[in-house]
Amino acid sequence: MADATQGTDDAPAPRSGARPATGRRSRTPRLARTGLPAWELALLGGLVLVALLLRLWNVGQNLPLVYNIDESARFVPDAAGFFSQRLGYRELVNPPGMMGLLGIVDQLWFRPQGMSPGEALARDPGQAYLLGRVVVALLSVAAVPVLYAAARRLVGRTAALVAAGLLAVAFLPVAYSRVALADGPTLLFVALGLLGAAWLLQDPPARRRGLVLAGVAVGLSAGFKYNAGIVVLAPVAALVLRTAETGWPHAIRRGLLMGVVGVLSFVVSNPYVLIDPHEVWRAIEYQANWSASGRYVGEPMTNGFAFYTWAAGWGVGWAPLVAAVLGSALLVLRRWRIAVVLLPLVAGYLLVMGPQDRFFARWLIPIVPVLAIAAGVAVAELAGLLRRRPVRIALATVLAVGLGAQSFAHSAHTAHVVGRDDTRTVARGWMEANIPPLSGVVVESMSPGSWMPTLDGRDDWFSLNRWSRYQTIPAVQRRDAREHPQLRIKAGFSSWVRILYPELLDEFERYGYCWVITGSYQAGRAGRTPELVPEAGRYYRELTRRADLAWQVSPFSPDAGPKGLPYGPTTAPVKYQIDRQATTYELAYERPGPMVSAYRLRGGRCAAPDPVVPNAPWG
């Protein structure tokens, strides 16, 4: 089938070793440096602008408070001490490429201001995190034109424009390019790897730019996100496809050169493979064991392949997913060489990630560029069925807009609503106004420690304890650990609901922890998978029986559920799902954050108006 705009300088992708065809002479103005028609460059520029706006709109959300647990604990804090402190295996669970990049940026940004990155993080954490977010957003945006360049060489102009448009608006790439995590930059390196593969497939055999680019891209992909190193399959496939023309010895030599460049790039982005290889291996083992350590509480799906299909349906779009399947089939049938370069990346990635016990939607991000290209192929082939050029262009435009509509709506909605105060910020203000200082509070793990205000109410973001916050009471732990072994677990975000049991409320009342602040990020997990944490379910039911609901804030629109009724801890208008709540995906959101409820226990010390907490830090 012809490409959708064939006949207007959109020649099919050239064969191996051939120069790109220019097609018949066109009257369309071209820019000398790019060789692209001015209208095409303008359209690509528009897509880049859309990508930039979606990623930078309200990018400073909630700062200086950082509610994403991965963002608050990793990358920006580790970058501040990257050149002065040694990372351990806990930090190296995420490869340090992103930390090193942000460490360099921090040095360039904060040193002229007379501060070290560590001092800047302590004095003004909001600026440090905003800088990290902007860097991530810009690198993610850069992936759009790079993917376009790769796709244009592989599958033609129409498919490339569709692919670039999808990457610009796709929800998962947008949402995770708005926080200081490694996912946004990884998109750029994967796209560069695909461009390197395209050059390897089509350049003259003596030309080495594809080898160098592919090697650098593979090394940086793995250095920023270990599993993204699977992009190596694309340039390797391109080298193998050229063996009929170049012979195996030549292909092996070129592959070794690419491998050397890749290893050097990986070492530059992850110097700990030389500094402390034991800790790197320990980190990889830790991550592998964690991923295989049983179902994640709150995730009802048990099959990784089904989960990633579902995640692609909402994280990229159901229409693009169907189009990607169709486009993949068309590539296999009509352009098998391109299929060999692109599709093993998706298949191999899913074969590695699908069988694991735990899965998260953002782990899908490294293969989104290939899905976007495959969807673009489907659009180009369908539009190419029509003979008249204006009709082809119109159909391709309608199909492209339709493919991006779902993601654009959710991406734009999220970018808008996250500019409002997070429910946890609202809850913090309510607690300051209504819970006396020094009171005993039980705050579920839904916020970083810096969320707690100081005694005098100052915004001293890395100081704690306006209230006596429950952690673990040693006497209770010693007495009940045999009957309730979950008390031995450190009560972090992932394990909070595992430490809960109904009798814990007796201890709260006995020791004066009378205010219990619940959030749907924890209670919702217990409600979604009650079979995994049955005691937590009983704890929440007992809480509603023994405590009064004093206050509640919901992030959802009043139209999202029954009106006039407060929700229980484990219920909400929208069912809990960790990825969709963490990214404020649902259109029902009016502001970011979980549903937060404040309960006041009535028994024991809590029967008094101002109970004293006997084990409070101040005595």
Automatic annotation (TrEMBL):
**Residue ranges crossing the lipid bilayer per the database entry:** 36-57, 130-151, 158-176, 182-201, 256-275, 305-331, 338-354, 360-379
A GO BP term here is: lipid biosynthetic process
Membrane topology per the record?
Multi-pass membrane protein
Keyword annotations: Cell membrane, Glycosyltransferase, Membrane, Transferase, Transmembrane, Transmembrane helix
GO CC annotations, alphabetized: plasma membrane
State a single Gene Ontology molecular function.
Answer: pentosyltransferase activity
Disordered: region residues: 1-29
Q: Which residues form the Glycosyltransferase RgtA/B/C/D-like domain?
A: 133-251
- Please name the Pfam families in this protein's record: PMT_2 (PF13231)
Q: What is its main location?
A: membrane
Cellular location of this protein?
Cell membrane
Listed name of the protein: Unannotated protein
Query: What is the scientific name of the source organism?
Result: freshwater metagenome
